[in-house]
Amino acid sequence: METELHSIESSQVVDLQPTKATVLLIDNDLASYYLVYEILGEYGINVIHARCGIEGITLFRQQPSIQLVITELLLPQINGFDVLNEIKRTNPNMQVITQTANVINNMKQTCLDAGFNEFIEKPINIQSFIFEVRKFLITIN
Q1: pLDDT score at 103
Q2: Most buried of 21, 55, 77, 89, CB within 10 angstroms?
Q3: Whole-number Å distance between alpha carbons of 90 and 7
């Protein structure tokens, strides 16, 4: 895979160097997990997977190496907004992205107002997804 992609949001070239970052993906859809795992794995990013919000919060608290959280909004047990609140309560500086197919009624603005750092629509655009993830990870490293 090429190590440079053009961002949809920017005409600048995005240099995607391999990283040792760890991302927590909270999503009960296995197809979404496999896609994210494959995309991020190409760049050496470790992906920890949780299939529900409670499991995601537990893993987040147990794994201090997590540098970014990506969560679906519609999850079993508790929703993505509750996950966001618990993660921010544990670490107010943690970057949390929502990745969801729930795009009705100005959901993007609702998510950003709630405290998510970014909103990514499903199905994901791979170039945009890589750009967003990299944007958050580069500010950490």
Answers
A1: 79
A2: 21
A3: 32
In a domain, 12, yes or no: no
Query: Could you tell me the CATH number of the domain that includes residue 53?
Result: 3.40.50.2300
Is the distance from CB of 56 to CB of 71 less than 8 angstroms? yes
Give the domain extent around 89.
19-140
Report yes or no on 10 lying in a domain.
Answer: no
- Those residues with Cβ within 8 angstroms of residue 62's Cβ, 6 or more apart along the chain or in another chain: none
Q: Give the residue carrying structure tokens 């040792």.
A: 20
Q: Where are the beta strands (DSSP E) in 11-128?
A: 13-15, 22-26, 46-50, 68-71, 96-100, 118-121
pTM: 0.85
Q: What is the DSSP string of 118-141?
A: EEEESSPPHHHHHHHHHHHHHHH-
By residue count, the chain amounts to 141
Is 105 inside any structural domain? yes
18 or 64, higher pLDDT: 64
* Measured distance CA(80)–CA(91) in Å, rounded: 16
Closest CA to 17 of 35, 33, 32, 1: 1
